[in-house]
């Protein structure tokens, strides 16, 4: 990662959006609750600036709930003023649909969840891109793909893969990159997951922060 102090401001705004992963559920550290403060620290060191961070995540939120929350005037205003935006989304859409699937073993609910997830994320990223374009201000959006807590279950491998394919497609939006949590967690689930086998533990959140950090900050350099 390049260390660069050519940012013109000594403070940048960082806004975190998402679900329980962005909340930090499962993290044992009080000072580093989840990945957000870890990524914040990495970013401050890399760019030589201070971050002003806000976290609007809520445990259990689906992409529809995240979209609804972001489109509230006060939240959207903060997002539009942000230099750095991170998003975790889609996991709860998949979990809710999977509960239906394991009752009926019919994939309709999973297909519907995939479509809704893609529609909601597209609306969110379009809204951000359209408004950001008006101001011509450098910014980055980092989206985390889904890791698979059940890598030994073939249906989970299939559907996590399909959800991640649609998340990867959002790289077509300006300044968007995808952090590959799937690969970071694959084969390391026992080491990186909390006792519930779903949320990351402190080591898992460190891995998420590193995955985000390694995407770089090229869009913000030489501001």
From TrEMBL:
User: What SUPFAM superfamilies does the database record attribute to this sequence?
Assistant: SGNH hydrolase
Annotated SGNH hydrolase-type esterase domain residues: 16-207
Any single GO molecular-function term of the entry would be: phosphatidylcholine lysophospholipase activity
Q: Record's InterPro entries?
A: Ester_Hydrolysis_Enzymes, SGNH_hydro, SGNH_hydro_sf
Tell me the Gene3D superfamilies matching this sequence: SGNH hydrolase
Protein name in UniProt: SGNH hydrolase-type esterase domain-containing protein
Phylogenetic classification of the source organism: Bacteria, Bacillati, Bacillota, Bacilli, Bacillales
